[in-house]
Design brief:
Elements lengths: L5 E6 L4 E8 L3 E9 L5 H5 L7 E5 L3 E2 L18 E3 L2 E2 L12 H7 L3 E4 L3 H11 L2 E6 L5 H10 L9 H4 L5 E2 L18 E2 L2 E2 L5 E7 L4 H9 L2 E7 L4 H7 L3 E4 L10 H10 L5 E4 L1 H9 L4 E17 L5 E12 L9 E7 L5 E6 L4 E4 L14 H14 L4
Helix pairs in contact: 8-9
The structure holds glutamine.
Glutamine (GLN) binds next to β18.
Family: Belongs to the CarA family.
Pfam family, one: CPSase_sm_chain
GO biological process, one term: 'de novo' UMP biosynthetic process
Length: about 400
């Protein structure tokens, strides 16, 4: 075994953490954020919404079950770096095809282990998410801090352009990355889930979508046609979908005026469901705006209350921005859900139009399945629209 090399993480406030280098040998910068999920590091690493960010996992050991070919959320990871307390020296799972170390090497992502992630997370909670420099090459503290201070700021950054698909395509049920969601022919039942007999066509804007969302849509009776983030309203109309889906994605939601414009144009024409960045795009289409949260919500057990039903769901989340509640009122938006930790907006709907969205991740990969019925709600909304009831 080769001797582990030292590596460094520096924050823009001048803090420096030294650990052991693994993954790619390089120096990167990015916004340092933390995720409190106990499991699901593969889905987190491959979620394109982390583009431009250095992910700190607060779970003390990462990597013990390796990575499997079926659980990726995108074709390649888009995060900038990974920080962990301990990387498991062994991989123990029959589904595993590689280790975290091998995966990071393959995709050129640097990682630090043996970092006091508790101290780092406490710093980020008090000061807020900060820009950082992570290097697995020889670099002095002063050099690393200087690079962290020069890093591109999250606010104002359009990272969607870097992760969206280049051309429209049909999401294929039999695509290799789709193996872990068994295909249910129309009308058949698996466990408590019955695949609807009638399938609807949904046009999905890919802002950096997690594949689990497409898998869920397919399971819930949708045929998914995926469109690049800058697809014009006319292109969507040509496809004649039954509904629109707005995906999750990286970066600052305020920095995407071309998407705000398209969604505004399509607002009154189709039933719409948005998740995370998609929810934020609906916010802008309703004339509203977002603001940056201090340290964001990233984890697998965040409590959300539905203000209309009183029901509380435990949800998976990954976002750094949130909707300003008052800002959506004029455009007909109603806040439907709030986060019980900080009372920020977690869901909205339109007063009359068949449009709704959530800031959290109902596809839950990783995470609890409390919000799974939202996919059924979207299906029901489209059924009603087609029956002329709304
Ligand atoms: N997961 C997402 O879609 C994140 C949305 C947005 N980039 C945010 O951080 O708030």
């Amino acid at each position: 075994m080769s001797t582990p090399k030292p590596g460094v993480l520096a924050l823009e406030d001048g803090s420096v953490f030294r650990g052991l280098a693994c993954g790619a040998a390089r120096t990167i910068t990015g916004e340092c954020v933390f995720n409190t999920s106990m499991t699901g590091y593969q889905e987190i690493l491959t979620d394109p919404s982390y583009c431009g960010q250095v992910i700190t996992m607060t779970a003390p050991q990462i990597g013990n079950y390796g990575l499997s070919d079926e659980d990726n959320e995108a074709a390649a990871p888009r995060c900038s770096g990974l920080v962990v307390r301990e990387l498991s020296p062994v991989v123990s799972n029959w589904r595993a095809s590689c280790s975290v170390q091998d995966f990071l090497n393959k995709y050129g992502i640097p990682c630090l282990s043996e970092i006091d992630t508790r101290a780092l997370t406490k710093k980020l909670r008090v000061a807020g998410a900060m820009n950082s420099c992570l290097s697995t090459l020889p670099l002095s503290d002063a050099e690393a801090v200087a690079l962290a201070r020069q890093a591109r700021t999250m606010q104002g950054s359009d990272y969607v352009r870097e992760v969206t698909c280049r051309a429209p395509y049909q999401w294929r049920e039999d695509a290799p990355e789709n193996h872990n969601a068994p295909y249910l022919p129309a009308g058949t039942t698996l466990g408590t889930h019955t695949a609807p007999a009638t399938r609807y066509r949904v046009a999905a804007f890919d802002f950096g979508a997690k594949h689990s969302i497409y898998r869920k849509l397919v399971r819930h009776g949708f045929d998914v046609q995926v469109f690049p983030a800058d697809a014009a309203a006319g292109l969507i109309r040509e496809h004649a979908p039954d509904g629109l889906f707005l995906s999750n994605g990286p970066g600052d939601p305020a920095a995407l005026p071309y998407i705000h414009k398209t969604v505004t144009e399509l607002l009154a024409e189709y039933p719409i469901f948005g998740i995370c960045l998609g929810h934020q795009m609906l916010t802008y289409a309703l004339g509203g705006h977002t603001f940056k949260l201090k340290f964001g919500h990233r984890g697998g057990n965040l409590p959300v209350k539905n203000l209309e039903t009183g029901k509380v769901s435990i949800t998976a989340q990954n976002h750094g921005f949130a909707t300003e509640p008052k800002s959506i009122e004029k455009g007909g938006g109603i806040v439907t859900e709030i986060n019980l930790n900080d009372q920020t907006v977690e869901g909205l709907r339109h007063r009359e139009l068949p449009i709704f969205s959530v800031q959290y991740h109902p596809e839950a990969a990783p995470g609890p399945n409390d919000a799974d019925p939202l996919f059924v709600d979207f299906y029901t909304l489209i059924s009603k629209r087609k029956a002329g009831k709304i």
